[in-house]
Design a protein that fits this description.
The protein is an alpha+beta fold. Helices cover 39% and strands 22% of the residues. The protein has 3 helices and 4 strands; from the N terminus they run αββββαα. A hairpin with a 4-residue loop joins strand 1 and strand 2. Helix 1 packs across helix 3. It starts with a helix and ends in a 5-residue tail after the last helix.
């Protein structure tokens, strides 16, 4: 399963992506046993997961936040 599909699955779960403040999101792992912080710096996002730290590219947690932001703005378009 691709990162985008895993991110979409996370974003669709109830309370799996929670905005903590204007720039910080708490995102559950795919299995729901861990949580990660995604920080929105405006021009980029950063996650504290191993995948993001090693690849330096958007991980599924960042993509889940992006899907959630789209859902907030335009409705549930990712079904």
């Amino acid at each position: 399963m691709s990162r985008n599909l895993r991110a979409r699955d996370i974003a669709q779960r109830d309370k799996a992506v929670v905005r903590k403040d204007n720039h910080t999101w708490q995102v559950q792992s795919t299995d729901g046993r861990s949580e990660y912080l995604v920080i929105d710096w405006g021009d980029r996002k950063q996650c504290n997961c191993v995948d993001f730290r090693s690849r330096k590219q958007d991980c599924k947690h960042i993509k889940a936040v992006d899907f959630t932001i789209l859902k907030e703005r335009f409705g549930d378009l990712i079904n």
